[in-house]
Amino acid sequence: MKCNYVIVLGTACALLLGSCVSKKAMKAEQAKNTTLQSEYTKLQDDLKNCNTLVASDAQSKALLENDIANLKKQLDFLKENNSSALKQLENLSVISGSQAESIKKSLDNIGAKDAYIQDLQIAMNRKDSLNLALVTNLKGAIGNLDDKDINIKVDKGVVYIDISDKLLFKSGSFDVSDKASTVLGKVAMVLKNQPDIEFMVEGHTDNVAMKGSNGLIDNWDLSVKRATAVVRILQNQYGLNPAHITAAGRSEFVPVADNASAEGRAANRRTRIVILPQLDQFFKLLEPKK
């Protein structure tokens, strides 16, 4: 009885042991199967990528072949045009000696004109520099006078000095006021330091008629008499060369503001000193250097 129990127990252990070994083997096989499945999936992806690359390479190859064909066409076109250009040059090579001389003279003229333009530009720059220096000196001499009563500017290469009539004249008159000597003295000091400068004194009025007032005929008369009054002071009191001075009357016909307002009429009643361009000296700068 005891022996039978031992046999039965042994048989049970063997079966149990066999069952354990079978489960381990099955797990190992399952793991191996999972690995193989992963590798299979990866190989499928690689195959798909390879197919894509092959298709892409085929497309790129087609594009390159198309580019090569286009380049060959362009090369043929250039060869054809090059041949045509060579034929034209061959035709041009038979120009006469007189034609060649004419071309040479044209090129020489172009070079001379270019040099003239450069000299002209240099002369203009120098003239602009002289005008700028003159304006700077004038503004320094004028000092703290109100800008509304005296204005100095450069317009198109010409220096203008505008002086309000209230600094120079009594209302509606060409009699010079006491303030005039102070203003004109400062302007004359700068102009006298430039003995070669020529200038014009212009009288300007508003559009209010002056007929019968102070013996004046009209605004023409007033503007001229105001200009000559200023010229006499510059000549007699400050010694400016009268040969370099011009007196002119512009009446009401060159306004700087609208005569419809009192402020506009006041701006128009002015004496303008115009620094005249020295054309002879300007063109002397363009003469050939010896």
The gist of it:
The chain has about 290 residues and is an alpha+beta fold.
Report on this model:
With 290 residues, the chain is an alpha+beta fold. It has a domain at 124-284: OmpA-like domain (60s Ribosomal Protein L30, Chain: A, 2-Layer Sandwich). It has helices at residues 2-92, 97-142, 179-192, 219-236, 262-268, 279-284; strands at residues 150-155, 158-164, 199-204, 245-251, 270-275. It has a five-stranded mixed β-sheet. A hairpin with a 2-residue loop joins β1 and β2. α2 packs antiparallel against α3. The chain is elongated. The model has no long low-confidence stretch (mean pLDDT 76).
Give the helix/strand layout.
Layout lengths: L1 H91 L4 H46 L7 E6 L2 E7 L14 H14 L6 E6 L14 H18 L8 E7 L10 H7 L1 E6 L3 H6 L6
Parallel strand pairs: 3-4
Antiparallel strand pairs: 1-2, 2-5, 3-5
Helix pairs in contact: 2-3
CATH hierarchy, class of the domain at 124-284: Alpha Beta
CATH superfamily of the domain at 124-284: OmpA-like domain
Mean pLDDT: 76
Percent in helix = 55-70%
Strand content: 5-15%
How many beta strands in the DSSP annotation? 5
Secondary-structure element sequence? HHEEHEHEHEH
Q: What fold name stands as the CATH topology of the domain at 124-284? A: 60s Ribosomal Protein L30, Chain: A
Q: How many DSSP helices?
A: 6
Low-confidence stretches: none
Radius of gyration: 52 Å
What class would the helix/strand composition place it in? alpha+beta
Specify the CATH architecture of the domain at 124-284.
2-Layer Sandwich
Please state the overall shape, judged from the principal axes of the Cα atoms: elongated
The separation of the N and C termini measures: 152 Å
